[in-house]
Amino acid sequence: MTNEPAAVFEAVTKSYGSVRAADGLDLTVRRGETLALLGRNGAGKSTAISMLLGLDTPDSGRISLLGGTPEQAVLAGRIGAMLQEGRAVSRVTVRELVGFVARTYPAPLPVSDALALAGLTALADRRVDRLSGGQAQRVRFAVALAGDPELIVLDEPTSALDVEARAEFWEAMHGYARRGNTVLFSTHYLEEADTAADRIVVLDAGRIVADGTSEELKRAAGGAVVSFDLAGAPSAYLSDLPGVTEVEIRGDRARLRTDDSDGTVRALAARDAIRGLEVAPLALNDVFLSLTRGRAATPETEPVR
Ligand SMILES: Nc1ncnc2c1ncn2[C@@H]1O[C@H](COP(=O)(O)OP(=O)(O)OP(=O)(O)O)[C@@H](O)[C@H]1O
């Protein structure tokens, strides 16, 4: 393995009419890491991925992939990709399909390895049009692995899957990553970025607004959440307590985001407002919301799940 990065974006911009889908992206993807591009619908994830794969060209800036251009890396079979829309294939078996794709690459994985990595060994002789959504998605993953790529790029790979199928999918992906390969995937599931990735890059309106491990992102955002039962008491004073930056009341429960949890708790204790008191570190969801706040309320954007 070399120290050369898997992929580099340098000051990459891309506009569609008046929409800036990539607005000065600078990003280095290191070899062997599993990186999540996290953002709402329309944040620019698919645009970044299309440019990385050479399917779209930046208006300005530069992208290199495995030390060369995206086209060179893709043509040499060094990249595997799973994009959002998959074409349906019928009649062939799982093994036949993966074998067929593997033969188009210069140095493919043995088909049995690709099937095993994708958790498909037991389904190898099943027709691909007779699979569940989760199984079909793992077939697409096996197809992306067929050429034995060094880097795999997955655009929202689990968006149509239920919880169990998602877990199985990530298990398969981890098997591939453990072989020293690089994975870049996009998602709008925070939980998935949190658990499946080593590194999270948060995109918003075509810009990178955060970059780090889930722990680093939470630490950088600072603070904690203090919650307690109001027990019918008034809540108007809460926003004036030490450290409190945000107050949310749900039913009879108050939830305070604070930069100084000790100070907040002391002040609540002084008012005897500590029924059901809980102090918790910030969740990735809170971090994400504060990073992307103020840009969310347009009709095309949806909250992350
Ligand atoms: N071919 C295109 N023509 C016009 N606008 C486009 C095109 N592709 C993307 N856009 C716009 O660029 C912005 C970024 O879109 P992109 O698909 O990259 O976001 P995304 O983060 O992948 O979203 P999603 O989660 O919905 O896939 C959006 O405002 C989108 O409407």
UniProtKB/TrEMBL annotation:
<dbReference type="InterPro" id="IPR027417">
    <property type="entry name" value="P-loop_NTPase"/>
</dbReference>
<feature type="domain" description="ABC transporter">
    <location>
        <begin position="7"/>
        <end position="230"/>
    </location>
</feature>
<keyword id="KW-0813">Transport</keyword>
<dbReference type="GO" id="GO:0016887">
    <property type="term" value="F:ATP hydrolysis activity"/>
</dbReference>
<dbReference type="GO" id="GO:0005886">
    <property type="term" value="C:plasma membrane"/>
</dbReference>
<dbReference type="GO" id="GO:0046677">
    <property type="term" value="P:response to antibiotic"/>
</dbReference>
<dbReference type="GO" id="GO:0005524">
    <property type="term" value="F:ATP binding"/>
</dbReference>
<keyword id="KW-0547">Nucleotide-binding</keyword>
<keyword id="KW-0046">Antibiotic resistance</keyword>
<dbReference type="InterPro" id="IPR017871">
    <property type="entry name" value="ABC_transporter-like_CS"/>
</dbReference>
<dbReference type="InterPro" id="IPR003593">
    <property type="entry name" value="AAA+_ATPase"/>
</dbReference>
<protein>
    <submittedName>
        <fullName>ABC transporter ATP-binding protein</fullName>
    </submittedName>
</protein>
<dbReference type="InterPro" id="IPR003439">
    <property type="entry name" value="ABC_transporter-like_ATP-bd"/>
</dbReference>
<dbReference type="InterPro" id="IPR050763">
    <property type="entry name" value="ABC_transporter_ATP-binding"/>
</dbReference>
<keyword id="KW-0067">ATP-binding</keyword>
<dbReference type="Pfam" id="PF00005">
    <property type="entry name" value="ABC_tran"/>
</dbReference>
